[in-house]
Amino acid sequence: MAEAFHIEYVNLRRGGNVAEIREFLRRFGLDFDGDVSFTVALRDDDGRLVGTGSSKGEVLRNIAVDESIQGAGLTAAILSNLMQEMARKGILHYFIFTRPAKAFLFAGLGFNVIARAEPFAALLESGLGSVASYCEAVAGETAHLPAGRAALVINANPFTMGHRALIEKAAAERPGVIVFVVSEDLSVFPYADRLRLIREGVADLPNVAVAEGGKYIISAATFPTYFTREQEHVQAQTRLDADLFARQIAPRLGITDRYVGEEPYCPVTAAYNEAMREILPPAGITVHTVPRVAVDGEIVSASKVRDLIRAGDWTRLEKLVPPVTIRYLRSKEARGILETIRTTDSRH
Fold first, then answer.
1. Which among 160, 224, 219 has a CA at the least distance from the CA of 185?
2. How far is CA 70 from CA 97, 164, 239, 267, in A?
3. Rounded to an integer, what distance in angstroms lies between the CA atom of residue 189 and that of residue 312?
4. How far apart are CA 113 and CA 124, in angstroms?
5. Percent helix / strand / coil, the chain, rounded to 5
6. Which residues contact 55 (CB under 8 A, 6 or more apart)?
7. What gap in Å lies between CA 328 and CA 318, rounded to an integer?
8. Widest CA span of the chain, in angstroms?
9. Separation of alpha carbons 125 and 110, rounded Å
10. Is 75:83 a contact under the CB 8 Å cutoff?
11. 161, 239, 266, 314: which could join 117 in a potential S-S bond, CB 3.0 to 4.6 Å?
């Protein structure tokens, strides 16, 4: 790196530092909320901020260099410092989000584009591990399934009769079904429990396999909320995830159909379904939108199940969830979760 510039680590506990980074990034149409693990600043000899970059988990974020000095290898210097810090924490796989028009800058630094959502975002990765190796692992787990496979993606917070009905329908209509479980551990019910309930709940369906969604399906790695403008969040998130599925995952796993539940309540999920209907068919993937299951005239949803837990209405609850979920909810291991639901506002 040229001697006229130096990199320093940013103390994000100081409001002035955060304000300076935020103001600099605003010039590039980027947002900065401070929700990062590590940030560096690139300064010239006069102390002027001319570049910055941050990281959180495996994601490199908010990479920007003043237009007047781009092309001098300074982006590489910022990345190198961030990746060294991540490596010290044992992180050896890296994602970058950028505008599609800027993707070539990072491709020249060893990153591979794995998804695009024009004109909002491009997702690139580098380091140990890849979407190809993820698909190879899933392929091994699902090798027993015949060709002509369908896919479903569910969070199951918790697993309901609606989830079961959607999987049953796919299994009845397609030779094989892969159920991807959202792996982000941000739900009331822990990921390990959600994964186990789904696997036990579909164990009687011989042509269904359950796989971990990992970092490539509805994860922090495919939802770049930190750099898109507020009104663009939903479009960027849903289209990037759908493009990644169509471009990388479906062809590697022989997936020809995607099943989704009709979404009358959540606007983000509804937008995600719309993105799939727009992006998947041109890639040769048929999207099946299935009406929600109703019990006693009431649409089954995980949020409704949580509401009934909060109300202590076990009679109605038992109609909305499979036996495996009821057994879990009545077990000792679920006591803490039930208490959390009872004491949390229904909007959360």
1. 219
2. 18, 53, 29, 40
3. 17
4. 4
5. 45, 25, 35
6. 36, 37, 38, 39, 61, 82, 85, 86
7. 12
8. 73
9. 9
10. no
11. 239
Q: What is the pTM of this model?
A: 0.90
* Three-state helix/strand/coil letters over 87-110: HHCCCCEEEEEECHHHHHHHHCCC
Mean pLDDT of 79-87: 96
pLDDT at 40 over 60: yes
As given in the structure block, the two tokens for residue 164 are 């079961």
pLDDT category, 185, cuts 50, 70, 90? confident
Q: Which of 70-74, 117-121, 219-223 has the highest mean pLDDT?
A: 117-121
* Beta-strand runs (E) in the chain: 5-9, 38-44, 49-56, 59-65, 93-98, 112-117, 121-127, 149-154, 176-181, 208-212, 255-261, 286-290, 294-295, 298-299
Residue type, 162: G
What are the distances in angstroms from CA 301 to CA 164, 272, 275, 340, 341?
A: 11, 17, 21, 19, 15
Written as six digits, the tokens of 142 are: 């699902």
The DSSP call for residue 291 is P
